[in-house]
Specification:
The protein is mainly beta. The protein contains no helices and 30 strands. Helix content is 0%, strand content 51%.
Length: 380
């Protein structure tokens, strides 16, 4: 279970006006495939005039707090709330005989540290992603171990007991790996990426019963490994990055049903044509103006840049920008800045985004941070 301790440094917390804060989530122990040496969730004050990050505080939030997300909604306490997961496999007290990780609700303090509201089991092992509902009244936690759990948010932003849980069948032939959940625009539909079965599972959020009801899934090419998805703000097109195949699938959203249509209207590689070494895709982000898609390549160690066709949403390759490190897993865009963290070289770099061409220019600003894998910027 998450145990929160705090260590702070830097400037006092500024309440008015709201200022952007960068949250960085890390692996904190040796998992065999990664030697996590991070200390928890880090906060940085972000100067959007210069692109500079000022280290502020680090809060140990249990083991492997690898994903962090915050609300824009202000809860009854007058605060926005941050959610984080612990990517562990421990014996579940709620579901004996199964494995679980943990999810926590936290608030940002005046010294940049995080204060725990509560922690609950995710009811599945190795949680890897958190999705916030459009009304910011629920979160969905995706678990790499093969499960999906939804939690209601209480009046103060703390977590209520799960009101939906699905553990997917596992066998020698079928191995479900649930990697993320993404809400479609202007609907109660959510799309869940099953990396193990090459499916995009679609659900309807039943508002009355506070439940998720399965709808028709969409298959992508065998061996793709769908990981994360973003949706164009116009609600017409979705983009899925495939970890294993190093591709992006472009899918139309049906106007009437507001569900993904099959097949994909385009599948495009995230790698240079002449790159043959091992690499896996990780994150996908849409630019603030909706004109460009960015995806990170771990192995080729770059950010791939694509231009979005304003008519049909298809992608055209613009180019590649080195991440300046090894293993760029997580990155985020805020305003005209892109920040990427390289989990295998323990560093983080800031790039300026050209809103006209989509190209990235490295500012030369780099920061030491151990095994960080998720970045999130929010205003506090």
């Amino acid at each position: 279970m998450a145990t929160v301790a705090t260590v702070s440094a830097g400037s006092p917390y500024q309440e008015n006006p709201l200022k952007p804060i960068l949250f960085a989530a890390t692996y904190t122990r040796d998992e065999g495939w990664i030697n996590g040496t991070g200390k928890g969730i880090y906060t940085y004050q972000f100067d959007t005039t210069t692109g500079s990050l000022t280290p502020w505080a680090v809060t140990p939030v249990g083991i492997n707090p690898i994903f962090v997300l915050s609300t824009t909604k202000v809860f009854s306490t007058g605060q926005r709330v941050i959610y984080a997961i612990n990517a562990v496999n421990e014996n579940s007290a709620k579901l004996p005989g199964t494995q679980t990780g943990y999810v926590s609700a936290l608030t940002l303090q005046h010294d940049g540290t995080l204060k725990l509201l509560n922690t609950l089991e995710t009811l599945g092992g190795s949680p890897t992603h958190i999705s916030l509902s459009p009304k910011q009244d629920h979160i969905i936690v995706s678990c790499y171990g093969g499960s999906l759990t939804m939690f209601p948010l209480k009046h103060d932003g703390s977590l209520g007991d799960a009101n939906f849980h699905q553990a997917f069948k596992q066998s020698d032939e079928i191995k479900s790996i649930i990697h993320s959940a993404t809400w479609l625009v202007n609907s109660n539909h959510v799309v869940v990426a099953n990396l193990g079965t090459d499916e995009l599972l679609q659900y309807n959020f039943d508002v009355e019963n506070q439940d998720l009801k399965p709808l028709k899934p969409v298959k992508v090419a065998a061996g793709s490994g769908p990981r994360h998805m973003v949706v164009n703000p116009n609600g017409k097109v979705a983009y899925v990055v495939n970890e294993v195949a190093n591709t992006i699938d472009v899918l139309s959203v049906d106007k009437a049903s507001k569900l993904l249509k099959s097949p994909s209207i385009q599948t495009i590689t995230t790698l240079p044509a002449d790159f043959k070494a091992p690499s896996t895709s990780a994150e996908i982000v849409l630019s603030k103006n909706g004109k460009f898609i960015y995806s990170s390549n771990r192995g080729q160690d770059s950010i791939a840049i694509f231009k979005v066709n304003e008519n049909d949403g298809t992608l055209t390759l613009v180019g590649f920008e080195s991440s300046r490190g090894k293993g760029p897993r997580g990155f985020t865009i805020y305003g005209d800045w892109l920040i990427v963290t390289n989990q295998n070289s323990d560093d983080m770099y800031v790039f300026k985004v050209d809103s006209t061409t989509g190209l990235l220019q490295c500012t030369g600003k780099s920061y030491k941070i151990n095994t960080a894998v998720c970045l999130h910027v929010a205003e506090f």
